C-alpha cells in the first residue's frame, strides 16, 4: 500500500539557508525531498545529501542531471526544471517527458509559480519559488505531497513552514 510524503522546493537562486532549513525540517521524517533546479549552488555542496536535485537554466555546474526519475513501490516521480521542455510556451514536451517515464507525479519549476494540476494519470506540481515568486501569489513557497493509494493531497508552505491554505488541493489517482 502506497503511503508517501514528499517535500518539493525549487528556484532558491543562491539562498543556501532556505535549502538547508527545509532539509533540516523534514529529513528523516518524509520519504523524499526534491529540489527542481536553479539553486545556483555547487553540485558538490553537502547540503544536497538527502535531496534529489536537478539542473535549472541558471545552474552552470555540470554535476547536476537534467532530469531524475524516482521510483517507489507503486509510485513513479519524474522531475525536471522545465526550461529544456519549453514550458514558457507549451506543455506538450513536459507532458511527453512525464508519459515516457510513466509518471504518477511530474515535478517542475522554472516559472516561479506554485501550481498543481492533473493531465491523464500524471499530477504536475510546481512548488513555486522559495525566494522569488512571480505572478499573483507573492508568498515564497514550497510544496508537500501526501500520497496514498487513491489520492494525492498537495499543500504549500511558506519559509516559516506555515501552511498557505488557499492552494491546498486533493487529486484522485
Ligand atoms: Mn529560476
TrEMBL record:
CDD domains in the record: MPP_YfcE
Keywords carried by this UniProt record: Metal-binding
Domain of life of the organism encoding this protein: Bacteria
Enzyme class: hydrolase
Cofactor dependency: a divalent metal cation
EC number: 3.1.4.-
Domain Calcineurin-like phosphoesterase intervals: 6-149
Keyword Iron found: no
SUPFAM superfamilies per UniProt: Metallo-dependent phosphatases (SSF56300)
Keyword Metal-binding in record: yes
Entry-linked InterPro entries: Calcineurin-like_PHP_lpxH, Metallo-depent_PP-like, MPP_YfcE, Phosphodiesterase_MJ0936/Vps29
Family, per entry: Belongs to the metallophosphoesterase superfamily. YfcE family.
PANTHER family for this protein: VACUOLAR SORTING PROTEIN VPS29
Protein's name according to its UniProt entry: Phosphoesterase
Organism: Streptococcus loxodontisalivarius
Amino acid at each position: 500500500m502506497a503511503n508517501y510524503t514528499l517535500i518539493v522546493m525549487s528556484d532558491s537562486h543562491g539562498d543556501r539557508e532556505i535549502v538547508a532549513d527545509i532539509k533540516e525540517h523534514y529529513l528523516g521524517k518524509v520519504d523524499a525531498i526534491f529540489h527542481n533546479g536553479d539553486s545556483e549552488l555547487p553540485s558538490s555542496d553537502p547540503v544536497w545529501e538527502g535531496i534529489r536535485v536537478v539542473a535549472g537554466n541558471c545552474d552552470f555546474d555540470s554535476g547536476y542531471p537534467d532530469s531524475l526519475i524516482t521510483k517507489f513501490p507503486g509510485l513513479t516521480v519524474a522531475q525536471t526544471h522545465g526550461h529544456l521542455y519549453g514550458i514558457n510556451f507549451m506543455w506538450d514536451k513536459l507532458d511527453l517527458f512525464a508519459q515516457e517515464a510513466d509518471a504518477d507525479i511530474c515535478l517542475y519549476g522554472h516559472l516561479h509559480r506554485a501550481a498543481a494540476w492533473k493531465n491523464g494519470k500524471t499530477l504536475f506540481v510546481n512548488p513555486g519559488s522559495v525566494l522569488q515568486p512571480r505572478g499573483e501569489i507573492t508568498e515564497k513557497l514550497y510544496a508537500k505531497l501526501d500520497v496514498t493509494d487513491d489520492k494525492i493531497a498537495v499543500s504549500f508552505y511558506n519559509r516559516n513552514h506555515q501552511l498557505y491554505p488557499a492552494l491546498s488541493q486533493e487529486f484522485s489517482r
